[in-house]
Amino acid sequence: MKKIIVPIMGMLLLCLDLTAQNVQYKVNHAGAATTCPPEDVASDFGPRMLPQKDGTLKYDWHGGVDYSPLTGNQDRGYTLLAMENGTISYIHNLAGIGFKYLRVDGVHHYGYGHIFTSKDGIQELGDFKIVKLLAPHAGQLAIYNTQTQTLYHTCRDGGPVLSCSEFKYKDGTDTITATNQVVTGSEIGPMGTSIDGKLPNGNKNPDAAVEAHLHLYNFGTVNNNTASDVADGNTLNPLQFATHTATTYLVSIYKNSGFTQEGIGLVYPGTGSTKAGVRVRMANQNGGGNYSAVMNIDKVKLYISKGDEAYKVLEGLNYESRVDYGGRTDAPDHYPAVNSANVLTKTGEWGTGAAPGVNGIVPKAYRSQPEDDFCFTDFVTRLHKAHVPGSAAQYTSCPAEAKYPDGRYKLKARVISINGDSTDSAVSPFLLDNYKPYISQVSMSVKGKQCYDAGWELKYDYCLVSVKNSETQILSDRAILNKLSAVGFVLPDSIRERFDFSKSQSEATRC
Ligand SMILES: [Zn+2]
């Protein structure tokens, strides 16, 4: 049995390694490896309001997750541990002034950002130094772990990967040969403060700094051994793979921009825009950070159902009512419009100018409240059923042609986490009533004998009335219409003219 069990266990371990990694650090080499708890997350993936120097908040897309075990710079110099086995394929800006990170290509493409400081050249932080290599690569810098005596370099010198044995550093009397290989738990660099910043004269600022933290990247595609594309479209949510406990969300729909009244407030006439605000809040959390849960939203959608029909994503005038951060490796192409040309994911404004909500999302988590608000603002109830969101508006005055004909509806919002877990809001019922009523069916019986059964459909934008089942019709349409007119049912002349009265005129006296 043993021979069988061992390979199976190996496979299980491999599976675990493929799907989940821990974000870990040590205070220093002598310290114990610590997995970042949810409280260490300082900024989540996706939209955020970033404080500016002048005190204002600016909408920003955060292409990763920030981890900071301690406030301020108390964790500066902590030792970052590799999340999985891999090759150091790229180290950004080790020699220059500004932001520095290293990328390990393993099963994933994790990037560890803000290592060291913004200064250029040789420096030391925690257990690590930026050091100069010996000839034949004397112009190159590398990351040296002074405690493990490990020299990290991509083993490239402006070209393809060479033998790492060519890349050496002299530590006292010891000659250290570089490696570009790491394993899970390797001590790879210091938690630092590096960031791009400019001096008033426009030059790079060597003293620019953020509070020490790890910005963890999960890159989508990488060009082997070259700089990573850090654009919003290529930075994914590392929480797809970084181990964290599933988050419990409370999802609610609001009818006002202040998010104080739940439900939906229909706007009439139906050519106006009805707005629905969706608040996604982490349960049992408060304040602006140090949550015992992690905000791990990937998608938020607003669904609509008429009667007992299936729920569909609500289609508005300009947008489908869905936000997709595109944080997953298997669906990296649905960012909100601010980040890509796919405008269908932008949800419209509920705010003006640079105010929060300008991009349809009011991100508050890790700043003021454990929640983000999503503004779906273009539910136009008189849209023609042929209308495609984002195209020129097509309305209808004919209920049969409406995308949302009159009737009883249900609205619900759904949040889907980066791991695919979904949470729905309570259902918000509403009655849509855009159109005057019309008679769709008339049946008449005398002493048990049916003498009339006819129906009408309203068709096309001009509401042409057509007879549905004239073969069972005995009393003429005109006679019926005259009877209806007698009780106050009025059809415009334009429609009466389109009505084909000729067919059953001669049968009017049978009943
Ligand atoms: Zn960050």
Walk me through this protein's architecture:
The chain is mainly beta. It folds into 3 domains: 2-35 and 68-212, no CATH class; 249-432, no CATH class; 441-507, no CATH class. It is built from 3 helices and 33 strands. The chain has helices at residues 2-19, 477-486, 493-498, and strands at residues 24-26, 34-35, 41-43, 46-51, 57-62, 65-67, 79-81, 86-92, 101-105, 109-113, 123-125, 128-132, 141-145, 150-152, 168-171, 174-179, 181-182, 187-190, 214-219, 235-236, 249-254, 274-282, 297-306, 312-313, 322-324, 361-363, 371-379, 407-417, 422-424, 428-432, 441-446, 449-459, 464-467. Strands 3, 6, 8, 9, 10, 17, 19 and 20 form an 8-stranded antiparallel beta sheet that branches. A 6-stranded mixed beta sheet has the order 11-12-13-14-16-15, with no helix packed on it. A hairpin with a 2-residue loop joins strand 11 (123-125) and strand 12 (128-132). The radius of gyration is 32 Å and the shape is elongated. The structure holds zinc ion (ZN). Zinc ion binds at residues 43, 62, 64, 66, 215.
